[in-house]
């Protein structure tokens, strides 16, 4: 062995194939995933890496990804991360030799990055990196094994490497494939067990929503729904409610583990358990939520009845300093929103919601508790899985999306959209009813006008107004007489008498504006 330094390695060594790298990566990821099960969700490096990538991705890239993949954006991200890891593993493993462990070093670097990702997550503790370390070690061991003497060096009794090399190479490939299979099985089993282990769906099913005291809203009368046109229901069923969040896996937070800490610029810090909430009056409010990323004509808007507690009541116990102008709310997974103090304390009745449409909050909508603030886009107000409220100032603190270039304040703009007809729809000649929704939370909707082609603006018929904080459905009966291509446009007038602007603004930095126009054909 004294001559190893001078003897060239490669002639008698088997060059590792890309497959060995895939095997090492599969084992590292699979073992990390499976060994994370007893440690709980914070130890899941796969989710941590994905979440860290989401956080580190520049805002504009994130937006294009959301545009491209829609609500599958997280699946697309997971696949992308796996492909990147596989390519790097395959390429670096090919450089691995017994004396220059390039691939092993790459695995260790990836492992260190994985540990950093785990530790960067809210609520993680140092012990949570253990599964990532175990996975990394196993990945290195597999790679070393595959390039070891058993496969990589001429066996002592063999005559020439040229004759036994194809055999060794085949053996190496078979063993590598075996490791890839084992890694995949461990990974899938780990992911499934992690999910079952942490799911709070049992906790949610066991929860009976308290009924509201005096503060029950009037049930929406049937007249909120214009007849004769297939519009979305005034109240969006939970299953159809739009969903937007940065959570790669939905946070699983039980009522027992939930606490709400109110601190910062206050006289007394307050910490409430879920049980403590019973001290406060239960209220119900119908509020339309809207996402700032909703393009003109988009679907990121829904309306629900929320059950919960007035934020005003919860905050009162803390004694807010008069120079605090922002409440920075934080979720269990580290999302933050900056909301003006007055929006949480004035008469609009912002609530800490624990129920949605008479059911406990669905897990993906924030179980066990989230904020609902009439009049503000979700990114500055509607924190799901909320656990922390810090009283601070807009000139001192910046929330998640504001750091990424979105406006610090996000009042909802007056907008309207057409649901019927859909773009490209063929409308039969004769009488037809078009329709859609309009919204200007806090101000309400006074009127909706519709224009066919470049004709005059005509009044649409309005469904009954429920409240200023909810959308208003509208319909427009029309005689489809002229065959051919047409357009229909809509604009709303809000409760202040202001007509929705025709100026087209992008969703960044504070919400899209412009008139929604749909092209259709009469035949
Ligand atoms: N924890 C957490 N809360 C969040 C978000 C998030 O990414 N994480 N996104 C916000 C945004 S941008 C919107 S529009 C609303 C959407 O609420 P929904 O998914 O219940 O419709 O949630 C808000 N609350
Ligand atoms: Mo949003």
UniProtKB/TrEMBL annotation:
Top-level taxon: Bacteria
Q: What molecular function does GO assign, one term?
A: heme binding
Q: Name one Pfam family in it.
A: Oxidored_molyb
Q: Which GO terms describe its biological process?
A: sulfur compound metabolic process
The residue ranges crossing the membrane are 75-93, 105-123, 129-147, 174-193
Q: Where is the Oxidoreductase molybdopterin-binding domain?
A: 248-400
- Which keywords, in A-to-Z order, does the entry hold? Membrane, Transmembrane, Transmembrane helix
The protein here is known as Oxidoreductase
């Amino acid at each position: 062995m004294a001559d190893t330094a001078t003897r060239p390695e490669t002639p008698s060594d088997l060059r590792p194939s890309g497959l060995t790298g895939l095997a090492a990566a599969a084992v590292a990821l699979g073992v990390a995933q499976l060994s994370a099960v007893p440690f709980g969700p914070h130890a899941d490096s796969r989710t941590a890496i994905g979440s860290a990538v989401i956080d580190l991705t520049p805002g504009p890239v994130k937006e294009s990804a959301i545009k491209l993949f829609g609500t599958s954006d997280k699946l697309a991200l997971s696949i992308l991360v796996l492909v990147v890891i596989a390519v790097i593993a395959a390429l670096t493993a090919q450089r691995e030799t017994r004396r220059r462990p390039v691939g092993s070093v790459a695995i260790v670097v990836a492992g260190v990055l994985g540990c950093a990702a785990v530790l960067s997550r809210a609520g993680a503790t140092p012990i949570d990196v253990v599964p990532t370390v175990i996975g990394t070690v196993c990945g290195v061991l597999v790679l070393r094994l595959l390039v070891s003497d058993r496969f990589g060096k001429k066996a002592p009794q063999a005559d020439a490497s040229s004759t036994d090399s194809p055999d060794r190479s085949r053996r190496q490939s078979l063993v590598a494939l075996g490791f890839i299979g084992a890694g995949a099985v461990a990974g899938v089993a780990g992911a499934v067990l992690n999910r079952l282990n942490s799911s709070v769906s049992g906790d949610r099913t066991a929860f009976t929503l308290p009924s509201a005291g005096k503060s029950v809203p009037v049930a929406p009368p049937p007249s909120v729904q214009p007849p004769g046109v297939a519009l979305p229901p005034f109240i969006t069923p939970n299953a159809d409610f739009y969903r937007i969040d940065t959570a790669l896996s939905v946070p699983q937070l039980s009522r027992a583990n939930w606490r709400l800490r109110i601190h910062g610029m206050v006289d007394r810090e307050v910490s409430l358990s879920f049980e403590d909430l019973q001290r406060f009056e239960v209220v119900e409010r119908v509020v339309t939520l809207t996402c700032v990323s909703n393009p003109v004509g988009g679907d990121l808007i829904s309306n629900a009845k929320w059950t919960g507690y007035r934020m005003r009541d919860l905050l009162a116990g803390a004694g807010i300093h008069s120079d605090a102008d922002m409440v920075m709310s934080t979720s269990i997974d580290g999302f933050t929103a900056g909301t003006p103090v007055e929006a949480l304390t004035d008469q609009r009745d912002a609530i800490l919601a624990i129920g949605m449409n008479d059911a406990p909050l669905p897990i993906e909508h924030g179980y066990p508790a989230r904020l609902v603030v009439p009049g503000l886009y979700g990114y500055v107000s509607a924190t799901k899985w909320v656990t922390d409220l810090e009283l601070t100032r807009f000139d001192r603190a910046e929330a998640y999306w504001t750091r990424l270039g979105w406006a610090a304040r996000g009042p909802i703009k007056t907008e309207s959209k057409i649901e019927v007809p859909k773009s490209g729809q063929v409308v039969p000649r004769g009488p037809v009813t078009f329709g859609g929704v309009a919204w200007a939370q806090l101000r309400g909707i006074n009127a909706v006008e519709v224009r066919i082609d470049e004709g005059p603006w005509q009044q649409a018929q309005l469904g009954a107004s429920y409240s200023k904080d909810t959308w208003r459905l509208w319909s427009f009966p029309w005689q489809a007489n002229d065959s051919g291509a047409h357009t229909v446009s809509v604009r709303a007038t809000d409760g202040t008498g202001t007509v929705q602007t025709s100026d087209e603004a992008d969703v960044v930095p504070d919400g899209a504006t412009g008139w929604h126009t749909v092209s259709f054909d009469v035949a």
